[in-house]
Amino acid sequence: MSVRSPTAPQPQFPSGAAYAEALQHTQLCFRHPELKGARPDLTKLGLPRAISGAFASVFSLTSATSGQRYAVKCFTRYVPDQERRYQAISARLARLDRAELSQPWNLGFEYLPDAISVGQQRYPVLKMEWIEAVTLSSWLDDNHADRFAVDRLADRFAALTRDLSQHEIAHGDLQHGNLLVAGDDTLRLVDYDGMYVPDLAGLGGTERGHRNYQSPLRGNDDFGVELDRFSAWVIFMSLKAIATDPTLWNRLHQPSGEFLLLTEEDFSSPGGSTGLQTLLAHPDQLVSGLADRVRSLAFQPLELLPPLSDTIPKQRTAPTVTTTSPGPAAAPAGGAGGLPGWMTGHVPSPARPTSTATVSTSPDGFRGRTALDVATALLWPLLLAMTGVLLMAGLPMPTAVAGAPVAAALLLTAFARSRRVERAQARAALAGLTQQLGRLDEPVKAAEKLRKEKEKFEATESERSAAHPKEQDKLTARYHAELKEAEQRKVRKQREIDKKIGKLAEDLSKALLKALTDKQNAYVRDRLGRRLIADSPPHGIGPTLAARLAAVGIRSAADFTGYRTVQNNSFNSTGAVLVISNGRLVNVTGIGEAKAIGLDVWRRDVVASAVARQPKALGTAERQQIEQGITRRRAQLTDQRSALEPATEALRVQARKKLEDGRSRLTQKHTLAGQEAARQRQEFSQRAVTLKQNRAIHESLSASVEAARMSLRRLAYAHYVRFIYVGR
Amino acid sequence: MPYTAEISRTNPTSIIFLVDQSTSMSDPIGGEVPQQKADVVADAINRLLTELSVKCAKEEGVRDYFHVAVVGYGATVGSAFAGSLGGRDIVPLSEVADNPARVDERSKKVPDGAGGLVETSVSFPLWMDPVAHGGTPMNRALQYAESLVSGWTERYPASFPPIVINLTDGESTDGDPTAAAEAITSHATADGAALLFNLHVSAAGGTPTAFPDTADGLPDSYARTLFSMSSPLPSHMRSYAASQGQRVSETTRGFVYNADITTVVQFLDIGTRATELR
């Protein structure tokens, strides 16, 4: 199905590794005289060393002919109008007069179409001058404690942004990796891929810039002179803050973090951000003011953002070490109503998520004596003197009266101290911070709660995982049991039928025999019935006796079966009774034992002669009828037997379906449970992340609370007494 | 929205390769020059490790945006790294970059600039060797990966979730792998559930089925199982796959059936595509 999508795919560029491989043979891959045979910087493995970004990999190449070192940018992604963009940027930058720039921040480059051969194709490169400089972030790693140097760099940065906006240029991706610091601590700007120059007006942007430096409102298509404004404020604020309070670098910047002091989250949701809250709560008003400025700018459309350069005084080389407001940025450039420059143009912003910034205290201790303070200061020596005079006068009086002036002085001082705004402010600050701290869950407890919940979840989860194969096994076991049962049933039935089939031959012979016997018996019975006593009487039976016999129903040989001897009581002699066909005994007058024997012998002769003539075999038709019966039976049984297999198969299919249904139900259940587990774990991860952030906020707030307590202590009675005389 | 976390050194992500090393991996795979499947897969991973190293190289060296594990499964299940990284599980990319088992010289024909071709040799770092011996204990391999994934999400709860890429040519010989696969994707960071992609390498030479969004049309239950085990592609990978000429939809999954040599390389490229490296 590797079918091309309906929209034509973008032209493909080689990967960074493909360029690195081609650059193993610069003699072959380049045609440009400066680059052909150039020597690349190598990695530990001896392969060309790359510096990669999202769109390109840059290699350092030292020309074999001139010895000049270049940075050669090889593109890994298609950028629309790339050549046109670079030509326009190159032309615009070439027109800049380096002497007029605040520092030599621009670097020369040349766009070379079809310069490098990779595989079977040729691709463009950007040949740039190599500059010896370090990125802003690594420079800060080494120099953040040097307040003078950082402050000077902040001003140089402001000057650089002024150069850019004066010439209607926007870099598009101002950030710690594209701002380099040269050996003389001046800035260099690199990576012009997303640069805007007036000739490119109307084209779209090629990138959105580093997310930790962009306004939440910057869109994909924004491309104009105002692209850098937000990031310029972010960088300037960060540098000024570090220059004011170098500890901020270690507190807010993570080692190898891809930002200075603030990240994307600080701009998009300032309420929950550690960095911005710390800066907003900073005792130094320059820092908190700039932070507040950045916070409010994050909610304004790019085109409404004031350029940094308009609000910053033009030349500043002096260090900015003082930490008190109004600070160095108080120059009236564009200012109105005597506000510091950076406070002008302040557009109302969404409600503050917290009041941290407003309750921040500065400076510590009492400042500026009022008339009341001065009066209190003057009153003390006066009242002390009064007490001295009273004591020296030697007048007898209670100590209470003698101490009255001192007590009055003490009371007055307490009153004057209570009128000082600093105390109310400091208390409010402490209360505000304590309240904020109270709103935060205690991180250690929250972490413990999370840990316990996770532990419990993982336990049930592992139970569930363990149960799954067991449930599967149960289904399989049931399936096998059902198969076995069906098979056993089949075999049992088969055996029964086979037994019946096996007996059919015997059944046939039995049936034949029975039919013959029945036929013979019927013949004999018929013969006996035909031999009438009256027609051929046995010896000694005359017509009278024959008539008497007929009277009790004995007319033929078939009508009796024998006789029984009986004892005649009256004559003490033996007589006989006859046994008739139904087994009854009849006494016939005149038939004694001798006559009975005679009758019996007669009957036996008739029987013997009938048996001698009875049929010896069945007729063909009779026989065939019986055989056909058996054949039908055999067919029935065979049918029953062959029906067993399909019936069993149906049972098997049924069991299989039950198994499959069960399995798919189980799988579905398992899949849902897995998704639910993923959701739950995702939530745990989110809580862990929030917890980490909260811990930082908590630490920062705790430090602020401690600081607020310290400053409240500096407003104690003794401090006040010192203040009314010393003035601080 | 899930799968949007920026990948940084403080929030790195991990890529875990599961490499089938069963006996059948010694079968040839279609292509201009027939090669063993095990060779193709090892080459693709070695190439990808170089690629990642270059992609993450900055002024000061290779940055640990990624931590990588290469797990082999065949006669045994465990780290497939050779050389000094042998036996290690998840290794930071900077360490990977500096410690290949060896650097081979391979001959290659390149254009000589005058319309012809000239044979040169290029250096090719190798971290793993092809192995083809034993069964296909996919269940154990997936369980191994799950323990790595679980440890990772615990350690980096805010990171882009771990990516597990399973490269195989045959049916699991130690039972249905579905449950083990689901166990992997039930782990999650704040940015979403762990991803599991499956690449089926074929000797059959049929048309590859790449990034399908339905199991319909897959030839057998084995292919359907692999499909159901595979995670949907996150949106940035979908866009990238589309820019590479793949047909994708909202529900496209990270799965290729019957992959040939080109598709193996492309699949790894798409499956390890990062959101944004900072």
From TrEMBL, chain A:
Keywords: Coiled coil
Region (Disordered) residue spans: 310-366, 453-474
InterPro entries per UniProt: Kinase-like_dom_sf, Prot_kinase_dom
Coiled coil feature spans: 476-503
Bias (Polar residues): 352-363
UniProt biased composition (Low complexity): 317-333
SUPFAM superfamilies on file: Protein kinase-like (PK-like)
Molecular function GO labels: ATP binding; protein kinase activity
Protein kinase domain sequence ranges: 44-321
PROSITE patterns, per database record: PROTEIN_KINASE_DOM
Record protein name field: Protein kinase domain-containing protein
Automatic annotation (TrEMBL), chain B:
Top-level taxon of origin: Bacteria
Domain VWFA, residue spans: 14-196
Coiled-coil parts of chain: none
Name of the featured protein: VWFA domain-containing protein
Species in which this protein is naturally found: Streptomyces griseus subsp. griseus (strain JCM 4626 / CBS 651.72 / NBRC 13350 / KCC S-0626 / ISP 5235)
Origin organism lineage: Bacteria, Bacillati, Actinomycetota, Actinomycetes, Kitasatosporales
